[in-house]
Amino acid sequence: MSPVSRGFRHLHRAPAGEEGRVPPGQYVTDGFPVLSAGPTPHTPLEAWTFSITQGGQTSKSWTWQEFRALPAETITADIHCVTRWSKLDTQWRGVSVDRLLDQVEHEAPYVMAFCDGGYTTNLPIEDVTGGQAWVAYDYDGGLLEAEHGGPARLLVPHLYFWKSAKWVRGLDLRDHDEPGFWETYGYHMYGDPWKEQRYAGD
Amino acid sequence: MDALDGNAIGGLLIDVFGAEMTAAGSTCATCGATRPVAELVVYRRAPGTVVRCRTCGSVLMVFVTRHGVTSVDLAGLATLSQPGSALSRRTGRDRPACRTSTQIRNNEGIRMSHEQSMSMSDEPQEEPMSMGQPDQEPMSMGQPDQEPMSMGQPDQEPMSMGQPDQEPMSMGQPDQEPMSMGQPHEDSM
Amino acid sequence: MERTAVRGRLTWRTAAVTSVTRETASVVTIGLDPPDWPGHRAGQHLEVRLTADDGYQAEREYSIASAPGEPLAITVERLEGGEVSPYLTEELRAGDELELRGPIGGYFVWEPGDSGALLLLAGGSGVVPLRSILRHRHRTGSDVPARLLYSSRTLPDVIYRAELDQHQDRVQVSYTLTRSQPPGWTGYTGRINQALLAEVAWPAETRPLTYICGPTSFVETAAAELVGLGYPPERVKTERFGATGGH
């Protein structure tokens, strides 16, 4: 048993009365920790595109200007990182994934989000539709910073935040659920924070 | 967020390999660049620790700790050599689909990944387990239906994690506290 | 089975905190007395672990400031918004306990038998392991020539200043201040660059042995500039601290 460090305050507790908002094993933070598996990409906006792909083909693609012209929504959400921090009432602005997928004919049950820098993460289609997911480019009233995933990141607040892929460049429609980056290294294929699905087999 | 280097994972490497490894030599399986582990690029504040080649950026090692067990994926490395010893690990460079994964249970010796043939008992070990003795055969880490992958080449000295004239290195003591890493927390918000 | 010291195992130990000494406004040196401490090599570091009463734990690495054979000490800089460093630099006091394990490291270490004139480049709190190396060099009576180039934001940010100034006969110390300088400052100003290194560093053809420690950007700039001056990369050892204050 580790000795308790005298006077080491753990500041990260849920606000009084709001404990029910915090999934098991999580701590609330005021900050916004930067976690990354690689260097921050810096794709110039004139080169940036967002694409829906299937079977090696691009079904639909938007340039940055086209993307920004799409109707956008403001989202307020609690987010939960698998490393145990949660942040309440985060504010975003972005395009609903429903709106993007509506532009494409498909019957795919799964998607693989792909990103600058090579990061990927897999999700069921039903978890990125029905108003549960966005491609977000504004955070907290301003442009999403590069270290937090800007120019745009996926936002899927009901799953652990590694599924909200930073630097997202598109969704690849898939017939099968295949593991993305962290899933390949042992993280859970689905990642429901309320069931503490952190690792494969949880 | 600035990346660190292999010095920052010195403790993690000891936990996983049972030896000081920051001075060990590495070869990137993608571009062939060689450098000490200490000079590799390390991203710590993540769901796992990711170690990348400083020359080409490819992922060389990924450490994930789940439920007290730290596992490491070394598929991006072509070689990892402990200086001054016969440890020279050839990973699946000629088998691109192969991933070799070593799980080290912190307090109970080596536990092989579920992907591989269990050349050692799956049960927690009562005695400390050696990585290899100078007079034993190299340890095998291969798939059950393939040729075992040797930790050393057949015509080389058997692998030893320590100096040949010292006691073999043990990987665990049964009565130690399990190590828990706690959760990484980003210092700078 | 009898438990013997196992090579390669790092155990957590609970150390008594013997002293907390303020070095600068944001830096303290913590004296530690861990049970059965095996000793260390100059340049190595420790891991420190804090535990809150709800079981929450946080771990960080800190370079050892003391030389082998001296009472164990680490020097810690408070990072803005940090979780562990504010506790260590503002709350911890003599008589407390601190969980640690180590020593760790085998690349960024120096022994008196290592050949080559020593060149030490420090950015901010990167001076800590280099100070361990310098104290070890002195305690072992090594006559290897040594130069330290130490970059800090301001003069009050310079750690160990009295000690470094006092021993200019043993090691040539050059300071560069990057943010502001006191009136009448005769040291260097601004971030290190190739011109400054050309002036201060040993000539490359003498095959010096170099240790660079500090924030990642400092280390990478310094290392690239030294290589540009003809320093062989394999004799330039680097330790990156990530983005920090103090430089």
Can you describe this structure?
The complex is a heterotrimer of chains A (202), B (189) and C (247). With 202 residues, chain A is mainly β. Chain A is built from three helices and eleven strands, in the order βββαββαββββββα. In chain A, the strands form two sheets. In chain A, strands 1, 4, 5, 8, 9 and 10 form a six-stranded mixed β-sheet that branches. A five-stranded mixed β-sheet of chain A has the order 3-2-11-6-7. Chain A is globular, with a radius of gyration of 17 Å. With 189 residues, chain B is mainly beta. Chain B has one domain. The C terminus of chain B is likely disordered. Chain C has two domains: 92 residues, Translation factors (Elongation Factor Tu (Ef-tu), domain 3, Beta Barrel); 123 residues, Nucleotide-binding domain of ferredoxin-NADP reductase (FNR) module (Rossmann fold). The interface between A and C is medium-sized, with 12 and 18 residues.
Shape of chain A: globular
SSE order of chain A: EEEHEEHEEEEEEH
* Morphology of chain B: globular
How many individual β-strands of chain B?
A: 11
Strand percentage of chain B:
15-25%
- Would you tell me the structural class of the helices and strands of chain A? mainly beta
Strand order of the largest sheet of chain B: 1-4-5-6-7-10-11
Name of the CATH superfamily of chain A: Oxidoreductase, molybdopterin-binding domain
Oligomer: heterotrimer
Order of helices and strands of chain B: EHEEEEEEEEEE
Count of separate structural domains of chain A: 1
Count of strand segments of chain A: 11
Could you say how many structural domains of chain B there are in total?
A: 1
Rg over alpha carbons of chain A: 17 Å
Q: What is the terminal-to-terminal distance of chain B?
A: 10 Å
- Which CATH architecture of chain A? Alpha-Beta Complex
CATH topology of chain A: Sulfite Oxidase, Chain A, domain 2
Q: Count of helices of chain B?
A: 1
**Biggest pleated sheet of chain A:** 6 strands, mixed
Poorly predicted ranges of chain A (pLDDT <50, ≥5 residues)? Answer: none
